[in-house]
Design brief:
By secondary structure, the chain is α/β, with parallel strands linked by helices. The protein folds into two domains: about 110 residues, Aspartate Aminotransferase, domain 1; about 250 residues, 3-Layer(aba) Sandwich (Aspartate Aminotransferase, domain 2). Helix content is about 35%, strand content about 15%. The protein contains eleven helices and twelve strands. A seven-stranded mixed sheet has the order 2-8-7-6-5-3-4, with helices on both faces. A three-stranded antiparallel sheet has the order 9-12-11. Strand 5, helix 7 and strand 6 form a beta-alpha-beta unit. Helix 2 crosses helix 8, helix 6 runs parallel beside helix 7 and helix 9 packs parallel to helix 11. The longest helix is centred in the first third of the chain and has 21 residues. The radius of gyration is 21 Å and the shape is globular.
């Protein structure tokens, strides 16, 4: 198992008695990101406007290359960055025909679900939602819907935030028919080994640094398959950077991932994200190792639940199911009371309605799991 606690001294040392089991919500940042934050400030002081040559040059290229390597992408230039995923949601929607037909699930995160529900209210989009549970049935449900009607967009999570179900990506690509496919990978990236090589030319992939990538806020990214949705109407002036796809009428766009760019942004998230990915490489820590560590901690936790009042039978996804993210989700009538009781005992979890979520990550140890079990008991 991994033992990386010493590399998270600032976050874990801020409140030493706290037990943080919400890696899926706000993952602690490794210490190297603090120095990276200072480097971002110092770069602005030293170079002022000239900092953009560094940010959009070597820093940008390194972030692209490191993320592409994690995801098995053949061309790092298909990646672009934004302060948050909602920017990409809005930009993707703006690249669709007017009143688009959208196929999605009942388990998508609010950044997408809220936006399309609002468009639906105004009659600006037609939205079909298939049931997101159990996760293994999602590709078949999507395929059945896509075979019955033509859609402009299929949007689906790699790991559903409110259950933990993980979905086979190749099956999603096959299910999408001729629609543009977007995979929300925020609960999968850096949590589950993910190889997009086989579908890199077919699917958009969306994620960021806030959770398992450990870079914090301000560094969302989008993989943009060549040729798909080439001209978003919601566009910033950065979208014309890089190689253009030849003569164009009207507003020009880059041919690579830059076509989904916005405008001026705070680059400190890029500094932190690159620092976190460098640190993992230096420590020899892979996504597979992080996933195995999280699963081992979850198994230890579930095995020790006797006498705590928390019943493993209430898990939405069984702990030993291979198609699960790095968190456990309990369906509980009294989830709010459980959440409050744990918080009062210095345990950070989170709750989504009647579901209590406990997440596991590379900063935790078996001893912390045992301490958590002790605090669960009356």
């Amino acid at each position: 198992m991994l033992d990386l606690r010493a590399d998270f001294s600032h976050f874990l040392g801020a409140e030493p008695a706290r037990l943080h089991f919400a890696a899926h919500s706000h993952h602690p940042w490794p210490d190297v990101t603090r120095q990276a934050q200072l480097e971002a400030w110092d770069a602005a002081a030293r170079m002022q406007d000239g900092k953009w040559a560094q940010v959009l040059g070597p820093l940008w290229a390194e972030a692209q290359a490191r993320i592409a390597a994690v995801l098995g992408l053949p061309d790092p230039r298909t990646l672009c960055f934004a302060p948050n995923t909602h920017e990409f949601v809005a930009r993707i929607l703006s690249a669709l025909p007017e009143r688009p037909r959208i196929l999605t699930t009942t388990g998508e995160f609010h950044s997408f679900a809220r936006q399309v529900a609002r468009l639906e209210e105004e009659g600006l989009a037609a939205v079909t939602r298939v049931e997101s549970e159990p996760g293994g049935a999602v590709p078949a449900r999507l395929a059945a819907a896509a075979s019955a009607e033509a859609y402009d967009l299929v949007w689906v999570s790699q790991v559903f935030f409110n259950s933990g179900w993980a979905v086979d990506l190749a099956a999603l690509a096959a299910a999408a028919g001729g629609a543009a496919l977007v995979v929300d990978g925020y609960h999968g990236f850096m949590a589950r080994p993910t190889d997009l090589g086989a579908i890199a030319g077919r699917a958009f992939y969306l994620s960021g640094g806030y959770k398992y990538a450990m870079g914090g806020e301000g560094c969302a990214f989008l993989h943009c398959p060549p040729g798909w949705l080439p001209r978003p109407r919601n566009t910033g002036w950065y979208a014309a950077f890089g190689d253009l796809s030849g003569p164009q009428d009207g507003v020009p766009y880059a041919a690579d991932g830059m076509r989904f760019m916005g405008a001026t942004f705070d680059p400190s998230g890029l500094f932190r994200q690159v620092a976190a990915l460098r640190w993992l490489e230096e420590r020899g820590v892979t996504v597979a190792a992080i996933h195995a560590h999280a699963r081992a901690l979850a198994a230890r936790f579930v095995a020790g639940l006797g006498g705590t009042g928390l019943d493993p039978a209430r898990l939405v996804v069984p702990a030993d199911d291979p198609m699960r993210g790095n968190f456990l989700c309990f369906e509980l009538d009294d989830a709010e009371a459980w959440h409050g009781r744990l918080l009062a005992r210095g345990v950070v979890t989170d709750r989504r309605g009647s579901r209590l979520r406990l997440g596991f990550g590379c900063y935790q140890t078996a001893a912390e799991v045992d301490a958590l079990l002790g605090r669960l008991r009356p």
